[in-house]
Amino acid sequence: xxxxxxxxxxxxxxSDRQLLRRMATYFAPYRGRLIxxxxxxxxxxxxxLVSPLLIARGIDLVGAQPSVGAIVxxxxxLLALSVINWACNLMRRRMTARLIADVxxxxxxxxxxxxxHHDMAFFDEFQSGKVIARxxxxxxxxxxxxxxxxxxxxxxxxxxxxxxxxxxxxWPLTLALLVMAPVVVFFGWAFRRVARMVTRSGFRVxxxxxxxxxxxxxxxxxxxxxxxxxxxxxxxxQINRRSYEVNLRRGFVLSNVFPTLNAMAGLGTxxxxxxxxxxxxxxxxxVGAWYLFIISLEQFWFPMTNIASFWSQIQGGLSACERxxxxxxxxxxxxxxxxxxxxxxxxxxxxxxxxxxxxxxxxFRSVSFRYNEQQQVLRDFSLRIAPxxxxxxxxxxxxxxxxxxxxxxxxYEFQGGQILIDGRDIRTFDLVEYRRQLGxxxxxxxxxxxxxMNNIRxxxxxxxxxxxxxxxxxxxxxxxxxxxxxxxxxxxxERGQHLSMGQRQLVAxxxxxxQRPPIFILDEATASVDPFTEKQIQAALxxxxxxxxxxxxxxxLSTVKSVDRIIVLDxxxxxxxxxxxxxxxxxGHYASLYDTYFRHQSADFNAEMYQKxxx
Amino acid sequence: MTSEFSVEREWHSDxxxxxxxxxxxxxRYKVYILGILIGALGNAGGAAVMPLLVGQAFNAVVAQPxxxxxxxxxxxxxxxxxxxxxxxxxxxxFSSEIIGQRIERDAxxxxxxxxxxxxxxxxxxxxIGDIMARATNDVREVNLLMNPGVNLVVGSAAxxxxxxxxxxxxxxxxxxxxxFYVAAYAVAVAYYLRKLAPATERVRxxxxxxxxxxxxxxEGIETVKGAAQEGREIARFRGxxxxxxxxxxxxxxxxxxxxxxxxxxxxxxLGLLHSLLLYHAGAINVGDVVAYNGVLMFLQFPTFAxxxxxxxxxxxxxxxxxxxELMNAETLLDENKGGYAGEMRGDVTFEHVTFxxxxxxxxxxxxxTISVKAGQTxxxxxxxxxxxxxxxxxxNRIYDVDAGRVCVDxxxxxAWDLDALRRQISTxxxxxxxxxxxxxxxxxxxxxxATQAEIEQAAKAAQAHEFILSFxxxxxxxxxxxxxxxxxxxxxxxxxxxxxxADPRILILDDSTSAIDSATEDxxxxxxxxxxxxxxxxxxxxxxxxxxxxxxxxxxxxxRVVACxxxxxxxxxSKDYRAIFAGDEERPKKTAAxxxxxxxxxxxx
Lengths: 615, 605
Hints:
The structure holds two protein chains of two kinds.
Chain A: H1 16-27, H2 31-63, H3 68-116, H4 120-125, H5 128-169, H6 171-218, H7 220-225, H8 229-255, H9 257-282, H10 287-329, E1 362-372, E2 375-385, E3 390-394, H11 401-408, E4 416-421, E5 424-425, H12 431-435, E6 438-441, H13 452-456, H14 465-474, H15 479-483, H16 501-515, E7 519-523, H17 531-547, E8 549-553, H18 557-562, E9 565-570, E10 573-578, H19 580-586, H20 589-598, H21 603-614
Parallel strand pairs in A: 3-8, 3-9, 6-7, 7-8
Antiparallel strand pairs in A: 1-2, 1-4, 4-5, 9-10
Helix pairs in contact in A: 2-3, 2-5, 2-10, 3-5, 3-10, 5-6, 5-10, 6-8, 6-9, 6-10, 9-10, 14-16, 16-17, 19-20
Chain B: H1 18-26, H2 30-62, H3 68-117, H4 120-125, H5 128-170, H6 176-219, H7 221-226, H8 230-256, H9 259-280, H10 286-296, H11 300-328, E1 348-355, E2 365-372, E3 377-381, H12 388-393, E4 403-408, E5 411-412, H13 418-423, E6 425-428, H14 439-443, H15 452-461, H16 465-469, H17 488-502, E7 506-511, H18 518-532, E8 536-541, H19 544-549, E9 552-557, E10 560-565, H20 567-573, H21 575-581
Parallel strand pairs in B: 3-8, 3-9, 6-7, 7-8
Antiparallel strand pairs in B: 1-2, 1-4, 4-5, 9-10
Helix pairs in contact in B: 1-11, 2-3, 2-5, 2-10, 3-5, 3-11, 5-10, 5-11, 6-8, 6-9, 6-11, 9-10, 15-17, 17-18, 20-21
């Protein structure tokens, strides 16, 4: 719930003026509606003021022995006013709902469009949950701001007009009323502060309690396996008890608000009754005017406390806007430059130029790259990969394997040197066009909550069902498709969770097969899959390797054995190159890496282990 | 209803319907209910006294001669009455707060107890996210139903009451307008709520869909960018935003047509007319007119509170329904208390077992027959969806067979006492769950009385001792969400240590974690081998060496046993099986299309 509250590195300070001005740009297209809305609000306010005047007039009439006609006319007037008031309120709500929905919708679209174009460095650094919370929840806060501001307008109008009218009736009574105002204002303000404090600390504890409850729920299965139900229940009770105590304390504090305000208002009314009554006896004011004062009190206190707390309430909304604008404004570190040789259209996905087809030659020329000041990953790094060649990157964690991939995909900006694709500077491509040429499978392949079929053609929406099926059948005679509960029409579930890890990898590889990209990039999964699925993954991989220039971060023995060239990396440098057999024979760095990371996947290890355990 | 766990309580709730359930909870706190009623009446009464007193003041002022002393007295009475009112209102708020919080506490307790009592098959089907939502949000909603929901409903109902009581006291005829209001109000509110519920639900669903669309694009951003599909995602999101906008506007339209406020306006005008006419006829005095119209103003409170309180009540009822759904879900298995409860040896036989998860679904197991002797290790291999886990779930009766039977020690598992059966069977699941407690506590979870020496012995046998000592706090290291994060291999070894301590006769080991390096792999394999010794072990495994040393290997394909036997037998007889071992390691290179046969085969040291 408070996910979005934590500050992120891309957050920046905007002045209130900047914020308000920028928010205004969202309302600007609806200028006409805003004016109409303001007029309606003013009308409602005016009616709110006139009604008590009318009733007071009725009371005054009482002294003057009115005719029945006058009484009826008065009441019909009152009735007409309240019907108009209701109609105005109806229009106000309808217009506000539309205005808010339009503005929030626009803001969400803007925020999403900006976010999706941020570079991958942004998404690697910032938790997706928090980004999502900004786009959905923080924008929602805007509705609160809108309501608050429109309330403020009407309440200010009420107060000013009310005080003005009261002054013309009787300035001493008005002064007496105004003397009491600061006390109410102070209480309204103080209560908001206390309420905010207990609410904040309450939410923190509740978040803790919720995560404890989560554990208690998730732990039931284990508890059942070991017949420890009573123990886990006792623990749950403690947590639940704590939750109860915290919530009760918070509830008690908040319970005080209305009783206190009522007592204050009662006090004010008592004073006005007495002071006003004496004035009426003394003849300073008319009896009707005095009565008007007393029923005006309620109209007076409420906007008073609201205005007092306006600034603290709107702060939440403003800082929500600040978070959204910061998200929109976050700067991209990946910058494309104009290609002097061609006039490729920059921009949207719609402007496709299908004539671009790369051969798949990749060259790093003295590239230097770092994530931040402290962490230099690549320094003076050079590497050439021929079209159609397959290359496996191996090395310990932090050797720079994934950095190389991130630079080729242009997800990150490098600081020095050059990267050439087919001899052309990577910075001069239209990014969308360029990435169409890449087939990418990440360590935990992401699937969309859709059918297997639609996931396979994600990068090629134009493929027919038959074509997708043909692609899927190319992998190991399509046995994996038969194993899916509903074939290619199987729903994969959120993030593909209805499929096993192995099946997800197969779908991701089939996606690349359908795409037939000139360049294939794979960050191999580390999780093992069952031996049958494993064989089919290999089959899929073989098909792709035969077609594309391939760069693989290899975790599986079979993968390193099947590539043309293994590149051994250490702290951003190439320390060995060659194919598996050559490097093993050499007995150098690769041989020792093999011992650490690959040996246990070999048949030798299996046999060895078998003997060891049997002994 | 059958349950595997229950606690002694002096109270019982009524689970026949959401309203009854909530009422049975509220009814336990009669003192506080009284507090709410007294507080609500006192609050409304205190408010109702005001116009009466103001009316009196009015009379004192217009009296000839004006009565200044009476005026002073009235002012003092106003202060006293309002303070009393504030105290009573506070009492009402406190009472409803206490009831609300206790309902939240008790409802969650009840839900949790019932969850513990559910069978494993129930927990297998239910997603933790869904249960969490009900245990936190829905339970909270039930609290909000009480406070502010019911609190405001009762509180504002008291305000409805006073015009009805005070009106006729001033003049019998003056009951007419308040009566009109109450009747019209009831009809209008019912209409409003009926319209509002579906509109709110639409907004909720549209918002959820928008959120899901967004989450998917952001979480899959690498895929989106890699496939250059940003434009499509933007359009998809815009569609979801548009749907939300339409729903939100729809809700706004329903809310704007709030008739009670129109009825209030009509009521006020009619009230003024009626009282002035009565005055004109000389039936009442000026003070009465003032007092009556003042009392009518109280109708404002129920008019506006309704807009807020009733939707809260109806969403609380919806939440209660969701909670009850979970609690009332029947579990199919019974405990079979008094069934066979002997010491288990560990012989397991499957006889023509067929099972499917639902009507009309493809059977997950078909005609499975296997026979395992006590102490044997069985490796179950096959593709995902072949039925490997399902097979093991038949043994400890997470599911019951549709046809055929499963026997342990020659006794049908359905004839076993469930507790005795499960106590002697342990499962190590694929995703090992650790509590956010110390490592020692996690290891001794199945045997809370284990000594430190026993814990360490189990950890050593599980190859976990060394990495545990590598942490600063050793066995007292807190793991999980609020502590050290352990790797998959480490979690697995802690689970194995758990199993050593629990010492079951039958062990089910679902193992698909893979070690990142060869040294760890060596340790894990040794740990697994050791824990399998001396008990019947079912291994769902990807590891070829484990498959090799198993006494019996069962190869499953789409729910059927396609091969069964020892490694050597299967290498001779099964093509499916041979395919795993042959040519697995060396994939044909683009240049060399020749499959290379593994050197391991036939190697003897």
